[in-house]
Amino acid sequence: MDEQDVWIMHGLPWDDPLRICTPEALTRWIDEVGFLPLFRNAAKGFSVEEHVFDGLWWTGDPAEDPWMWREQLAREGHVAYGRFFGGKMGFISREWFPHFANWRRDGYDFDARWEDAKASMREKKIMDLFLQREEWYTWQLKAEAGFGKGGEKNFSGILTALQMEGYLVVRDFRQRRNRKGAPYGMPISVYITPETLFSEEHVRSAYDTDPQVSKRLIYEQVRRCFPEAEEKALQHVLGK
How confident is the model at residue 5 (pLDDT cuts 50, 70, 90)? Predict the structure, then answer.
């Protein structure tokens, strides 16, 4: 954002042969690199933004708009989408999600984290809802978990923390429906657990690995795919 509060996107030229042009190509690249934040960050080259044409953001064309691609990729469920990178949005491949979950969870399922007093009551109120049903709209989570006026505080922060810890992902973006069943308003995030997205067996398949080994493997993968990113910048985006 510049001094006049205008978003300035940083991408590739239209005719650059390396430019990501379709959501299908983006999915293939996420599968290849494993981890990819949505927007430009401190780590050079480590984002969707820097590899698409900057003039197509927020055009509303699902075939060309990277902002709409994120909805398609979340809906398809081939890769995970959520606030994984310093509280910012991005993607993780199915292959690499087990190591991400193992590192960020420190080897804990949420119930075990709660039992060892490593999770807050506000986190538990949200996570307990996923024992009732698989998916929740953001506004439903907020209301049912007791956040809002006169209730618990910092809903957005807690929801972000649960994604950063590898317990929740964005599954879809959907409009609300009125009493007649007609959709209305802007699409809203729908959340599920990664176990629902990829299967419990797959997500927890790296639990036998030391979490710090999972962290090292993740860093090695990102360094290999984005060699121009400086170490300090990667720590800022991935976490120390």
Answer: low
b/e 70-94 (16+ beta carbons within 10 angstroms → b): bbbbbeebbbbbbbbbbebbbbbbb
pTM above 0.85, yes or no: yes
Task: List helix spans (H) across 81-206.
Answer: 97-105, 110-115, 121-129, 138-144, 155-164, 194-198, 200-203
Using one digit for the tens of pLDDT, what is the confidence trace for 117-153?
999 999 999 999 999 999 999 999 999 999 988 889 9
Residue 93 Cα distances to 6, 101, 102, angstroms: 32, 12, 14
| CB burial of residue 158 (10 Å; 0-12, 13-18, 19+) | buried
- Please state the domain extents for the chain: 23-238
